[in-house]
Design a protein that fits this description.
This protein is mainly α. The chain has helices at 2-7, 10-22, 79-99, 102-120, 122-142, 149-160, 164-176, 182-198, 202-215, 220-232, 236-254, 259-274, 278-296, 301-316, 320-338, 343-362. α9 (202-215) runs antiparallel to α10 (220-232) and α11 runs antiparallel to α12 (259-274).
Length: 365
């Protein structure tokens, strides 16, 4: 794993880090980095639950009838397009809020919050989105044979070109024609959920994710993704249910020290922390940290993010010395990876400064 990381160019590392900690809007691995409520959510997509598989940022051209074989996946979506779509969706949500009934307002306000977070750093949000699309395309390529080739090629092409409505129609067609092909139908439903989540249409995304889980109830990726969306929607107990199922499945499938297992434990830590159960969160986060250290080594963004989550949990308990220790280690990694001026690095620096201030205030005169 370390050799793979070292083989990437600086630009590739930055793109991958942005996806992992990135927009740190969505792995979501749900990585809370904060003593004051600030959150770094590695994922993309501003709150989506991306589970990174360790394949990294794959570079190769994919066109119709071209399979990916360690070449470059070209995504034909420009930064300007990404920003325009976010702004259009922001306008739609604001218009809907003016007419919304009380029952609908909470969802719209969550969607608006996530849009605003992405627009604060559109470049980071864009890089995270592109990295996530590449992973999704790679995953689809692994399932060749489960899908009709022509429809799969068309769907991949639509994803590459940012033609999300067309991609959704194609996955809907695959889903509807998948009678007797459970893996095909489940993956199509999951991909439709990802498309809806990209568009900040969380109710639609949840419907598709939950269908994928009904079809494949032991799929750790689908379970984790559904859990993260529930976490985004502040359905904390529901999120924990999905994360626990994902963890059990991941342990059975992958074993103790797999990135999927560490990701789910990190998310469980975030969910328990959201409920104020910091000691329980720390139990999961310590296990996640031990795992990512074995997988990635000392100076990897996954490790930094997990340490920040631990710092945040200890901070909430008033254990400022422990919080500062974790923040210090995480900050050193992020400064090396992202630079001192990156928003995520500044967030960690702010958390560290706040913890030091709190510690000083707690000392007797």
């Amino acid at each position: 794993m370390l050799e793979w990381w070292c083989s990437l160019t600086h630009k590739q590392k930055i793109a991958l880090i942005v996806a992992i900690i990135g927009a740190m809007g969505g792995i979501y691995i749900t990585l809370n980095i904060s003593s004051t409520g600030d959150t770094i959510n590695p994922s993309t997509n501003g709150g989506t639950a991306n589970v990174h598989t360790g394949t990294g940022d794959i570079h190769a051209n994919v066109t119709n009838n071209t399979h990916i074989q360690n070449q470059t996946i070209h995504i034909g979506i420009a930064l300007e397009q990404h920003e325009q779509r976010l702004k259009r969706r922001e306008s739609e949500i604001r218009a809907d809020l003016e007419q919304a009934h009380a029952a609908d307002r909470q969802l719209l306000e969550i969607e608006l919050r996530d849009i605003e977070q992405r627009l604060q750093d559109t470049e980071a949000s864009y890089e995270a989105h592109i990295a996530d699309l590449k992973e999704r395309i790679t995953q689809l390529e692994k399932l060749r044979g489960e899908f009709p080739d022509e429809l799969l090629n068309q769907a991949i092409e639509a994803l590459q070109q940012g033609e999300t409505d067309q991609a959704d129609r194609l996955f809907k067609q695959i889903e509807e024609e998948a009678e007797g092909h459970i893996i095909r139908a489940a993956e199509a439903a999951f991909q439709r959920g990802k498309i809806a989540q990209d568009a900040i249409r969380y109710a639609d995304a949840l419907k598709h994710y939950e269908k994928a889980v009904r079809l494949q109830p032991d799929n750790a990726l689908y379970l984790n993704g559904t859990g993260v969306l529930h976490l985004t929607l502040a359905n904390y107990q529901k999120a924990i249910e999905y994360f626990e199922l994902s963890l059990a499945s991941g342990l059975k499938t992958y074993g103790e020290n797999h990135p999927q297992v560490a990701t789910t434990r990190n998310n469980l830590g975030g969910a328990w922390r959201s409920l104020g159960e910091n000691h329980k969160a720390i139990e999961y986060l310590e296990l996640a940290l031990a795992s990512v250290l074995k997988t990635y080594g000392e100076n990897h963004p996954h490790v930094a993010a997990t340490r920040n989550n631990l710092g945040s949990a200890w901070d909430s308990l008033g254990e400022y010395h422990k919080a500062i220790e974790y923040y210090d280690l995480a900050l050193a990694t992020l400064e090396q990876s992202l630079g001192k001026d990156h928003p995520n690095t500044r967030t960690v620096q702010s958390n560290l400064d706040a913890a030091r201030t709190a510690l000083s205030a707690s000392q007797p005169d």
